[in-house]
Amino acid sequence: MYSASPFAPRRAPGAVLAQSYHQVGVHTGVAGASPHRLVAMLFDGLLGAIAQAQGAIAQGDVAGKCNAIGRAARIVDEGLKSALDLRQGGQLAADLDSLYGYVSMRLTQANLHASAEMLDECKRLIEPLREAWEAIGPKVDGAR
User: Which of 23, 63, 109, 141 falls 20 to 30 Å from 56 in CA-CA distance?
Assistant: First the structure.
């Protein structure tokens, strides 16, 4: 049941996540994806944007860095964070909300200082969530 998840949608299953995903400019595979898959796609998009920003920093590409970090921040704020259901999600949703707020702040700082190290920190914080989310996929998809 969706209400047990900190990601419980406030509308039809997947509607909030699909809307968030479209808002951050990532379109591949959204239409038929489950809510679980949409969150996985947001994690992948975030990690990809961080990698692009790191590459741009290494190449001295200021515009590329700004664009990639901006995309990463939108994924966190408009995608992952907005998909949380703080009323139904309990302490886990509150903890994720705090973590996403911190990651968003560090992305902004990384952009200001062109810091690959700060981007590494964001990546280290998000990768375990992505791995855990991937690990529960078969359980969530099998419950349908």
Answer: 23
